[in-house]
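Usage example:
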Amino acid sequence: MGFLDYFRSERRASASVAKERLQVIVARERSGRGGPDYLPALQNEILEVIQRYTSVDDDAVKIQVERDGDCEVLEVNVTLPADH
Amino acid sequence: MARIVVVTSGKGGVGKTTTSAAFGAGLARAGHRTVVVDFDVGLRNLDLIMGCERRVVYDFVNVIHGEANLNQALIRDKRVDNLAILPASQTRDKDALTQEGVEKVLEGLAEEFDYIVCDSPAGIERGAHLAMYYADDALVVTNPEVSSVRDSDRVLGLLSSKTRRAERGEDPVKEHLIVTRYSPSRVGKGEMLSVEDVCEILSINLLGVIPESTAVLNASNAGMPVILDEKSDAGQAYDDTVARFLGEKRDHRFLTDKKGLFSKLFGG
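Running the assembly step on the lines above writes:
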């Protein structure tokens, strides 16, 4: 960065934007990993059903498979809006 | 016991084949019997990067089908002792590589070589899967750029679940990060993810950083692994990378801008 640019640029450095975006998407993709392939479709359908009855955000349904020894637990978390 | 090293990335065009050629040549130069295997069926290019494209007679798929034996298909490098390549087939049949076939060929190669470097195709389809399946080590080649980092993370997920080591519950595949096309001056300006950022996001061990360099295109134009260009920054960076892989401690030499204070202050 040149001496003069230092005063000119108020834009955030693009690399830090890239890093933040990557941290979010990578964390999200890792949480869905290792589970069965139908998990994303299942998540979407559950969301559709809930949205039929009440208005929730598109990211209101969190779903993951946890492994505990020989046992697999399907965990579904639904966040309802505050004014409910 | 031969060690199988896959060079992989998910995304295309980040430097897998350049890295495979340089890394294989570096291992061979260090005295290890090394073969580099091109898994990119239908899009053979390792031969061109290593400068032996006119010597290809038989390929990987010919050996799997029993139409040639390994010795007929292997091309011995003329510049570096102990170095050979097994070219990919140019067939359009996507199913030409079979798991049993690949296993048989790797077993054959393991009798003659210390290191088997598998140059993976881009993507996560059959060729990429088979290239990583038998691996002991993985070199994950990543550009400091969002799509490449994301794809590398996806590949890391596959390495920990879809490999023979994972399926058998053995020690996991050893993962090593190689960041390529790195531009310290752009990192300094905040325009490019730094090596630290990439390591933090992917949380794997950094093996090497290869600077953006004119030497890479020059080497591929000439059909020479860039590591053999010993005066070039990229060649030296690959040399350090191989040495670190073999257990030597070496500092990262190409993480900072070589430009002086003057040009930093006044731009340029």
